[in-house]
């Protein structure tokens, strides 16, 4: 389910493709270097895959906008 949600995020915004997996990979490497247990490493990887989940409800036009957001858009 986590993977499906992460793929949904990536599918909506071409700039996000692969981002969550790269973050998960970085988290795994850091957690391994810190000698965390397997359960903690797994949890961090899953959290990394979901860290952009809030973007699902944001219109793609706003995510990809290059100009500053207006007050209305920020709301």
What does this structure look like?
11% of the residues are buried. The protein is built from 5 helices and no strands. With 75 residues, it is an all-alpha fold. The model has no long low-confidence stretch (mean pLDDT 87).
Key features?
75 residues, single chain, 5 helices, mainly alpha
Helix percent band: 55-70%
Q: What is the approximate shape?
A: elongated
| Class computed from helices, strands and strand pairing | mainly alpha
User: Can you summarize the main beta sheet?
Assistant: none
Question: Tally of extended strands?
Answer: 0
Mean pLDDT across all residues, rounded?
87
Radius of gyration: 15 Å
End-to-end separation in angstroms reads: 30 Å
Strand portion: under 5%
Low-confidence stretches: none
Instruction: Note the total helix count.
Output: 5
């Amino acid at each position: 389910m986590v993977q499906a949600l992460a793929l949904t995020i990536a599918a909506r915004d071409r700039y996000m493709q692969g981002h969550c997996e790269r973050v998960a990979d970085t988290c795994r490497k850091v957690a391994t270097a810190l000698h965390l247990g397997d359960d903690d490493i797994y949890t961090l990887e899953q959290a990394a895959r979901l860290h952009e989940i809030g973007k699902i409800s944001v219109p793609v036009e706003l995510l990809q906008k290059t100009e500053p957001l207006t007050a209305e858009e920020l709301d």
